[in-house]
Automatic annotation (TrEMBL):
InterPro entries: AAA+_ATPase, ABC_transporter-like_ATP-bd, ABC_transporter_ATP-binding, P-loop_NTPase. This is ABC transporter ATP-binding protein. Belongs to the ABC transporter superfamily. It is found in: Cell membrane. GO terms for biological process: response to antibiotic. Keywords: Antibiotic resistance, ATP-binding, Nucleotide-binding, Transport. SMART domains: AAA (SM00382). It comes from Streptomyces radicis. The keyword Magnesium does not apply. One of its GO terms (molecular function) is ATP binding.
Amino acid sequence: MLEVNELTKRYDEVRALDGFTLDVAAGEIVGLVGHNGAGKTTFVEMVSGLLQPDSGTVLVGGRPPADTRGEIGISPQHIALYRPLSVREHLNLYGGIAGLRGATLRDAIDELAVALQLTSFIDRRAGLLSGGQQRRTQAATALIHRPSLLLLDEPTAGADPETRQALLDVVKQRAGEGTAVVYTTHYLAELMDLDATIAVAAKGRVIARGTSAQLLEGLPGEVRVTAADGEVHVSSQDPTGTLLEILGSVRRPVESVELRHPTLDDLYHSLAADHVH
Ligand SMILES: Nc1ncnc2c1ncn2[C@@H]1O[C@H](COP(=O)(O)OP(=O)(O)OP(=O)(O)O)[C@@H](O)[C@H]1O
């Protein structure tokens, strides 16, 4: 659905993108993670057609972004709502631009209002909403026309747990219907919840890509065993096997056992640590 090949973009001496390549299939959620300044937002802006690359190509469903605007839904990192317009007016506006009319538009608004819990403030002006309510409204403007590609740039930044879960549930549902999703976040736990594949960006390129299981393979976990005569704490690629080995050799009563398998946080630190600007 999305094919991005070798994008480059320079701002004077800063290489914002430096050979950024990423494919996203229909129905796939790709979690795009990386340090501040890794190039994630620049990439999202290029796919949405807001920014031109110096070189490289972007294809959405085989066509350039400029020809596919109605098929893309974007929730930018910074809240971009019209303060005097109500939530319903936003959804009418965005849905209308995408060609939705009459009962189809009304049904789409009703459905999203329930899914993203907008109902209680749907006729309130955006300027009077809380941060979390604005986040949900912004996400709704990206979803209203059922785009085939969703670009969500830190959609849950500053959101409370309920807001976050409502959004994650809608994203999962849309992916289940075949929408391709690029989901930029610093909250790695969200990507586990979404069952997303992961792309790690650093210095303007994707340095690792795969399922979380693929990317976690080979990363060490930790085992800590405390016995009456002291503590053993080791890093191991097979924490369960190592734990059993230690338990087999301990001669004094064991007081506590701690076993930690590698997480996405470990992956993130191991891959991105060497690539900070
Ligand atoms: N308009 C601009 N002018 C100059 N430099 C820019 C501009 N936009 C981005 N950059 C630089 O390009 C690099 C990539 O920025 P980008 O916003 O894409 O990173 P990011 O991965 O989205 O970061 P964050 O996690 O902080 O949102 C940074 O070094 C940034 O300072």
